[in-house]
Amino acid sequence: MAANTNVMEETYRRVKSILISQPKPERSPYYELEKKYDLQIDWRPFIHVEGVEVKEFRKQRIRPDEFTAVIFTAKNAIDHFFRICEDMRITMPQDTKYFCLTEAIANYLQKFIIYRKRKVSVGKRHIQDLSNALKKNKDEKFLLPCSNLGAKDVSSYLTEMELNWQDAMMYKTVSSDLSDLSDVTYDVLVFFSPLGITSLYENFPEFMQRDTRLAVFGSSTTKAVEEHGLNVNIRVQPPEVPSMTKALEIYLKQSNPDIS
User: What percent of the chain has pLDDT over 90?
Assistant: First the structure.
């Protein structure tokens, strides 16, 4: 029993500070946790997006206006597609067709084009949602703006459908500079993607977990943590634990019982 008690005490050490590896939102349920458990919660994106310079983009030997249809998988893709067009002094033809993975992406597209439903197809979340629209337009020449990470699911599906398509790297997801955190410690670090773990080690190659607890979202993030020999202390496990805030609260009820 004594051994088990020690394990419990070691596992649920009191939490006073949490660093979330994302930009700070205007509203968030994390703010309620911060007040309820008397925490200091800081926000710091471990990764960020940088646009590919036109000089570098030209090396791909792609001209956006040579394509009759464009597939957008994210708002970033829209931003950098039209940035590249502007820098190359290209105006996309009025009859260009656009395929957007979600309604939010389609709505964002309205900032850049004269929106006509007949030339914009919208999915619910996945590229498969656009199956019928893609089949009806199988003779178009498709461009897929993407980051250095690519869009594997989309690429595989377009190839499977035997469409005439080409991807174009227009932006990059890279590690942020975290050097100012070198002398700062947190009780809990929260990660949502493997790239966050990559950034952690690019900034701090000698990082050792010690008493720091790691909260992770997703199987790929968990795998990245474990590949570095680190321990996952807090994890999202749908459907029982559907969100990071829920996972953190479950842990905090144990680590800070006098407050909860």
Answer: 85
